[in-house]
Amino acid sequence: MTRVASRFAPSTTGPAHPGTLLAGLLCWLDARSQGARVLLRLEDLDPERCRPEYARAFVDDLAWLGLDWDAVVLQSEARARHEAALERLASAGLLYPCGCSRKAVRAAGEPAPDGGFRYPGTCRERTLPAGAWRGCGEPLRLRMEPGLLELRDESGVDLSLDPWAAFGDPVVVRRDGAVAYRLASVVDDAAEGVNRVVRGRDLALTTAPQVALQLRLPGPRRGAAPGCEPGHARRAAFRLRVGSCRQCRPRGALAGRISGPRFPVPSPVGRPPARC
Ligand SMILES: [Zn+2]
């Protein structure tokens, strides 16, 4: 039988927020309660906003909370396999350049279910020779097919959606050349054998678009984490009156509040991080 493998993948664009730690704790509890492997993947793809010191602080803060990991990886170090996936998509004629600004997408006026705007497909007919995706200088979008994806997570939440009708073609390479998180995470989940994902319910709308990408690659099941809705995270931050986990450490407040009597903080055991 295939062993369950899970992951927690926070963005390292700032100090760990209490809500992020709560999401990490829920993911870790879910995985460990099933005897699953659980990976800490530090999402550091944005060259402007992600900083190595934030990545190091995440590892430190999660260890302080008592969570251990079977491996710790930096997502940026998997650039070669992200590029291999892009090569495949480009060879299949599925990528196209699109320099449309957010303002232009907004002006098209097609509302998306997340409160933003659907990409209207302005550049969808543009072509891109297979090898030309490198150094294109424009963002690249992935040409998707319309179609309803019927999905339901383990807690019974209906996640069914037609990703193309709802959001249009997604950007997979940004203008600065960075690979978009949504593609990188699908590629990495497949490469690392991740077959279970627990995330906040606030991310439920992004599940179907992720699954649509997974249809080209093997991917994990998804389940929205109960009790990890954005309101919970905001309330936790408000009560503690802190902007990051690091600030409340001296008060000894966060571990007790997040862990509580039902989830005693385990001893910080386990192998040290492989990287960071
Ligand atoms: Zn465009």
| SS content category | alpha/beta
* Largest sheet descriptor: 3 strands, parallel
Q: How many discrete structural domains?
A: 1
Count of DSSP-assigned helices: 10
How helical, in percent, are the residues? 25-40%
Q: Just name the CATH architecture.
A: 3-Layer(aba) Sandwich
- Residue-averaged pLDDT: 80
State the order of secondary-structure elements, H for helix, E for strand. Answer: EHEHEHEHEHEHEHEHHH
Task: Describe what you observe in this structure.
With 276 residues, the protein is an alpha/beta fold. The protein has one domain (5-259): HUPs (Rossmann fold). Helix content is 34%, strand content 12%. It is built from ten helices and eight strands. The strands form three sheets. It has a three-stranded parallel sheet with strand order 1-2-3, with helices on one face. Strands 4-5-6 form a three-stranded antiparallel sheet. Strand 7 (196-200), helix 7 (207-214) and strand 8 (221-225) form a beta-alpha-beta unit. Helix 1 (18-33) crosses helix 8 and helix 6 (181-191) crosses helix 7. The chain is globular and about 50 Å long. The model is unreliable at 218-245 and 250-276 (pLDDT under 50).
